[in-house]
Design brief:
Blueprint lengths: L1 H11 L2 E9 L23 H4 L9 H13 L17 E6 L5 H14 L16 H10 L5 E4 L5 H14 L5 E8 L3 H7 L12 E8 L6 E2 L2 E9 L19 H20 L5 E8 L3 E9 L4 E2 L5
Parallel strand pairs: 2-3, 2-4
Antiparallel strand pairs: 1-5, 1-7, 4-5, 6-10, 7-9, 8-9
Helix pairs in contact: 3-5, 6-8
Length: 305
Amino acid sequence: MPETRTRARAADQPLSVAGWATHVPGLTAADLPGSPAEPACGPDDAKDVLGRKGLLGKEPSTRLALCATHRALGLPPGKLAEPLPYAPGTAVVVASNLGNVETVSTVLDDMRSRGGNVVSPLDAPNASSNVIASSIAIRYGFTGPNLAVCSGATAGLDAVRLARLLLLAGRAERAVVVGVEPADPVARALAALRPGDPGELIAGAGCVLLGRPGAWPTDTGITVGPVVRHTSDPGPADGQPAVGELYGAAGVVRLAAAAAMLAGADADAGADGAATTVRCGDADDAWLTVDVTRAGARREAGAAA
């Protein structure tokens, strides 16, 4: 019985959000919290954030995911100059339902019409369902578990839930959680087949850095609780930004925006204890929610609260 109670307490333990970024091309921080001050670049201009090297052959969704990750890590523009000291043991979990469908469609069409020999060596790796997560891990040297989540409208918070399981089980020290969707014609056509009227798919990415307290170099005072599943619509979440249909990326983008809003309110008001609820999902895939709380002002890990 004591062991059961200990596990239950661990499952309810809040995790620290050490960093965040939203990256929806064309939007600024005034439009979507967590965005850059200037309009976020599109995938063709990802070099402005990441530098030119290493982007050849990368698909739009991978480029957007890398931009969001780079900014969440607080890195200066350009190629990583030296290894990140906290990269070992860091997991990467990516939510994307349609991230590489255009490449998969193109590769299959080419193979059917002209044979496998015509497939470009640059396109072939992009046909992997895990290409976004693996590209992030390779670029930044993250050596922890590497997962892709493609679970429909709940994918974003499903990725947060899986990252939480990895952290609480001791499988990873830290987790980089990314949600991203492209807006190419193939992705938009597939997204339009969803029941109801979800709206036209837009391209965008979000990233949050999760860990136990002290796992990352910076403590922001923002925490997230357990992810909760609902079989019926839990109702609208107050203050959730309406920027367009982000499908599988929505949960992570909304979580990153919520963290940015709470941190901004903290800086403006200097008060503790604010909270909000992030949600994603639909009638087909169910709904997920997670509570985000501001515990205090931004401080360095290990410093007095």
